[in-house]
Structures are given as structure tokens and as C-alpha cells.
Hints:
This protein is of the alpha+beta class and about 240 residues long.
Amino acid sequence: MRWKLLRRRLSITAPRVTVRRHMAWPLRWAGYAVMLGFSGALALWAFEFGKDLAGLDKDAKAELTRLREEQAELRADRDKAQAVANTAESLLKTERATEERLASQLRQSESDKLALQADLGFFQQLIPQGGGTPEGLSVRGFQADVAAPGHVRYQLLVMQTGRSPAQFNGRFELVLSGTLNGQPWSSSAAATNQPLQVKQYARVEGMIDCPPQAVLKSAQVKVTDAGGAVRALQTLKL
């Protein structure tokens, strides 16, 4: 039996046997990695060498340089435009402030103009037309009217004429006369006894109280100097 088996193995009909050398798997994978790395390095070298031959890398660097220069120019233009915009905004704010100030001055000028026109109208109303004015102190255009029951508004213009009149320092008094409950009545002179200073003219106006039931018939204004002497006197019928 053993002989038959030995003969079969040594004969032509014996099964084939392959003899292989055993290698550890870590070494096998390391070898594969080295081969793969080498192949990748070779492919990368071929790619770079091809770009150098075609001139692609040089053109890309030139294009990158040009783009950087354009970016720097655009930034400079943007900074200039921003500076111009800031300057324009500042000028616009200054112009608006100036415009508002001029408008305020214009409104003030119009108000002053209206005040002057009112003063002129007042003077024209108080000063009678025609005739000369004697030298000295005089009361011109004395007016009085009942603004409300118990309240009388008055206005007058005291003038001092002459070549070089000195300043007048004195007082003025306003007295109302009429009837109250059928009896004669007059207001107290102390109610309107006020100081008065006149260089060339002085405009005087105010309000005086009286009983609401009083029937007013006349108003008299008297101007006295520092010594109490009467310098001007005028009576107005109401």
C-alpha cells in the first residue's frame, strides 16, 4: 500500500505542487505604499514638467501679479472716492447750517422791519400834520381808549425840540375823569406817576385801571420836571 502511494507521487500522474515563499502582510502593504508613493511622485513630476514645457505656470504667476496690482488700484480708487464723499458730506452739513443761520437772520430782519414799520406808523399817527413845532418839551398825539371794562390803554409821544436839547429828567402823570354812580369821579395821579427821560423823543404807552362802572369823559397827561414844575400838559376828551 505504501509502495503504491509512493509510486503514484513520483509518477506523471502525481498532483502538482506549487512552492511559494511566505511574506508577512505588514511588509507586503509597506511595499505597496512605497510603489504607490513613487508612482504619485513620478506623476506629479511629469505634470509640473509638462506645465513648464507649456508655459502655463509662468502665465499664471503673471496673471496673479496683474490681478494683485489691479486690486491695489481699486482699493486706492475706493479710498479716494470715500474721502471725496466724506468731504462732500461735511460741506453739505456746513452749507445746511449756514442756510439755517441765514434763514434765522432773515426772519429776525423781517421782525425788526415790522417793528420799525409799527413804530413809524405810531409816530405818524401821533404827530399832527402841518404847522411848525415850537422849541421846548411838548406832548404829541396823546391817545386813550377803553381796552376792557376797568382798563384804559394810553399812548403818547413826548418830544423835545431845539438845536441841541439836553436830556430831560422828570415825571409824567395820567388822570382819568368822569362820573361814578352819578357822582363826579377822577383817578389818582399817583396811579401813573412814573419817571420820564427825554433826549429828543420818548414813546410812552401803558395801561391804567379804573372802576368798571365809571363813565369816562376825559384823560389828562401832565409832564413835570425834577422841581415839580409843569413842562407839558394835554387833555383828551373820551
